[in-house]
From TrEMBL:
Entry annotation: catalytic residues: K56 (for sulfotransferase activity)
Protein name: Sulfotransferase
Provenance organism: Nothoprocta pentlandii
Every Sulfotransferase domain range: 47-282
Cystine residue pairs: C245-C257
Enzyme Commission identifier(s): 2.8.2.-
Length: 305
């Protein structure tokens, strides 16, 4: 099965390598901020909304879909300001943003923010009314997708099973491995709730971003205070890739589907490992549903991998 992150494409050639782990250079960012589609009028503003997570959840798909909205301007590359580039200062951060007109929203996405301890405090001190969007997805599938991505870059790494357990015989999961740790959403969310009210955070289902992209995008647009302009007519289902792709209704140009790095085939994982991981995540999932007031129904997908 394909990962939710795989749903919608960037402009062709916009990113060949996997943006999830990009260590974006200043030069790339300034190019992204000033790309040809950016008008020469308007001004660069600090973002009013951020897609803060999660890695391999569907953040690229969401970003590309929301960028189809005329009132949204977004950076294509991940600035990693609140985790890796904070010492460069807000002036630098503003300089990598696209120019906007009055009434347009500036956005960026860096999925590692959600799991970065300092990020909530830093974002809050930039602007305490910043709107935050988190794309979440079944933590078991997310972990496998994360592992698959690393494997494609480093084929020599140990198997998923070896990395997932501290002690295979005892069935002890290694929660310090980032592929597993990221999926303990309740743990990370606690950190954010110390600085932001729940009403300022929108949780998007990575699964529904595939099965009902227009429905999820309606929630996103409402949350951002935008007119519902991105609707079903922006999407069509790509049978080859197995998920929706984005088309711009105004022109008949080729639809945009996420790049080659999206939709990799997951390695076969021992069903017993999947079962143990489900058991491990279940209490955290339940806690997350209680904290957010949303049931993502990850417990009901017994058959999936």
């Amino acid at each position: 099965p394909l990962a939710p992150g795989e749903a919608i494409a960037a402009p062709s050639g916009a990113f060949e390598r996997d943006p999830q782990e990009s260590s974006t250079t200043d030069e790339e960012l300034s190019r992204a901020g000033g790309r040809s589609t950016t008008p020469d009028y308007g001004e660069r503003r600090l973002p009013q909304a951020l897609i803060i997570g999660v890695k391999k959840g569907g953040t690229r798909a969401l970003l590309e879909a929301i960028r189809a909205h005329p009132d949204v301007r977004a950076v294509g590359t991940e600035p990693h300001f609140f985790d890796r580039n904070y010492e460069k200062g807000l002036q630098w951060y503003r300089s990598v943003m696209p120019k906007t007109l009055e009434g347009q929203i500036t956005m960026e996405k860096t999925p590692s923010y959600f799991v970065t301890n300092e990020a909530p405090k830093r974002i809050h001190s930039m602007a305490k009314d910043t709107k935050l969007i988190v794309v979440v997805r079944n933590p078991v599938t997310r972990a496998i997708s994360d592992y698959t991505q690393t494997l494609s870059k480093k084929p020599e790494i140990p198997t998923f099973e070896v990395l997932a357990f501290k002690n295979r015989t005892l069935g002890l999961i290694d929660a310090s491995w980032s592929a597993i740790r990221i999926g303990i959403y309740a743990l990370h969310l606690e950190n954010w709730l110390q600085y932001f009210p729940l009403s300022q955070i929108l949780f998007v289902s990575g699964e529904r971003l595939i099965t009902d992209p227009a429905g999820e995008m309606a929630k996103v647009q409402d949350f951002l205070g935008l007119k519902r302009i991105v609707t079903e007519k922006h999407f069509y289902f790509n049978k080859t890739k197995g998920f929706p792709c984005l088309k711009k209704p105004e022109d008949s140009s080729a639809p945009r589907c996420l790049g080659k790095s999206k939709g990799r085939t997951h390695p076969k994982i021992d069903p017993d490992v999947i079962h143990r991981l489900r058991k491990f995540y279940k209490p955290f999932n339940v806690m997350f549903y209680q904290m957010t007031g949303q049931d993502f129904q990850w417990e009901q997908e017994e058959g999936d991998q």
